[in-house]
Amino acid sequence: MKSEIFNSAISDRKKLKFLYQLNQIELEPYYLTVNRKGNKVIYGRVNSTHEIKMFEFNKIFNIKVLSNSRFSPIIPILN
C-alpha cells in the first residue's frame, strides 16, 4: 500500500506529509529502492531544505498526499 502511494506521488510530482520516528516530515519524493540491509526506502527532498534524505518504509506512518502542491525535482549535481 505504501509503495502505491509513493509511486503515485512520484509520478504526479505531489508532495507528501508523514510521521517518521515521531517527527512530521513534508517531502518531495524522488526515488524508491531497497537499501543494503534489504529494507525498502524512499529518497526525497525535505521541504525548506536542499538536502536529499533517505527514509525507511518501516518507520513511516500516517502518509498524506498533498494534492494542492506540485513540485519540480531539484537534484544536486556533484563534480
Summing up helix and strand content along with how strands pair, one would put the structural category as mainly beta
Percent of residues in helices comes to 10-25%
Please identify, by name, the CATH architecture: Roll
Compute the number of structural domains.
Answer: 1
Q: What is CATH's topology name?
A: SH3 type barrels
Rg estimate, integer Å: 12 Å
- Count of DSSP-assigned helices: 1
What does this structure look like?
- A five-stranded antiparallel sheet has the order 4-3-2-1-5.
- It has one helix spanning 2-12; strands spanning 14-20, 23-34, 40-46, 52-56, 60-70.
- It contains one helix and five strands, in the order H-E-E-E-E-E.
- The protein is globular.
- The relative contact order is 0.27.
- The protein has a single domain, classed as SH3 type barrels (Roll), CATH 2.30.30.
- The model has no long low-confidence stretch (mean pLDDT 87).
- With 79 residues, the protein is mainly beta.
What distinguishing features does this structure have?
79 residues; mainly beta; 5 strands; globular; 14% helix
Brief characterization of the structure:
Helix content is 14%, strand content 53%. With 79 residues, the protein is mainly beta.
List the SSEs and their pairings.
Layout: H1 2-12, E1 14-20, E2 23-34, E3 40-46, E4 52-56, E5 60-70
Antiparallel strand pairs: 1-2, 1-5, 2-3, 3-4
